[in-house]
Design brief:
Elements: E1 13-16, H1 33-45, E2 54-56, E3 62-64, H2 66-75, E4 79-83, H3 89-98, H4 104-113, H5 117-129, H6 133-140, H7 146-155, H8 162-176, H9 187-197, H10 204-213, H11 224-235
Length: about 250
């Protein structure tokens, strides 16, 4: 990756009370209220803004320092800034990675705001069903290599179709039919469940019936194979050998 290197001694620092000069970069993270409140307290006590100017590009878009700008507005004090041309969202990502690390949800929201439909589909799915991100990917059932997936999320290369979302909704609906039997849930349990539903001849009604008969067999394990074995034990509970089913 090519990195832009700047010598800050070559840039002039400016000062203004005209906060309307500045613009946000589409795709940057929203203001964190906790960070904002902490900065208000800190700067009210000891104003070091002259020593820490915000960075903007030639279009006056904020590359670094949106929280400091909001604090300056709130306290009605001057904001100090430096203009560095040809900077944008990539530099924002780099700066935030070196400061407060972006979460995967930060990237998903950012790319969705920029208009990437795959990220918007994922975000709407997460919001509609109020799911943790890890559970959402489990229901999507399109993730094979977590490291590769993480890299795709960060680089804006995630591919999620409308059919992927429809399948995820089916997987979620099926799982919700048995969720009440489990005291806890993790992605290994969800993945194991989706795996068995794809088995030829699988019956969700049969699984529900067996769980109702023997609910104490329903356990959530940290190991994927153990969860498969658990589902197999439940599914075959009091079943004749010729009608049993093997899931792994």
């Amino acid at each position: 990756m090519n990195e832009l290197k700047y010598n800050l001694e070559n840039f002039e620092m400016h000062k203004t009370n005209d906060y309307s000069l500045f613009k946000s970069v589409i795709g940057n993270r929203p203001i964190c209220r906790i960070n904002f409140r902490n900065l208000v307290k800190s700067i009210s006590k000891d104003n070091l803004l002259p020593l820490n100017p915000i960075i903007v590009n030639q279009n006056m878009q904020i590359i670094d320092g949106q929280h400091r700008l909001e604090v300056a507005k709130h306290l009605e004090i001057p904001i100090y800034y430096m203009i560095i041309n040809n900077t944008g969202l990539k530099q924002i990502y780099s700066l935030n990675a070196a400061q407060k690390k972006w979460s995967y949800m930060d990237y998903i929201i950012s790319y969705s705001v920029q208009g990437l439909k795959d990220y918007t589909r994922l975000l709407e799915f997460i919001k509609e069903y109020k799911l943790p991100l890890s559970h959402s990917f489990a229901y999507l059932d399109i993730i094979q290599d977590s490291k590769t997936t993480i890299q795709k999320i960060i680089e804006g290369k995630l591919s999620i179709s409308e059919d992927d979302i429809k399948n995820a909704e089916i997987n979620l609906s099926n799982f919700l039919a048995i969720e009440k039997y489990f005291e806890s849930i993790n992605i290994k349990l969800i993945k194991a469940f989706i795996k068995i539903t794809k088995h030829k001849g699988f019956s969700l009604n049969r699984l529900k019936s067996k769980l109702k008969q023997k609910p104490e067999l329903a356990k959530c394990y940290s190991n994927y194979q153990q969860n498969l074995r658990m589902f197999e034990d439940v599914y075959n509970f009091k079943t004749q050998e010729k009608n049993t089913m093997r899931f792994f």
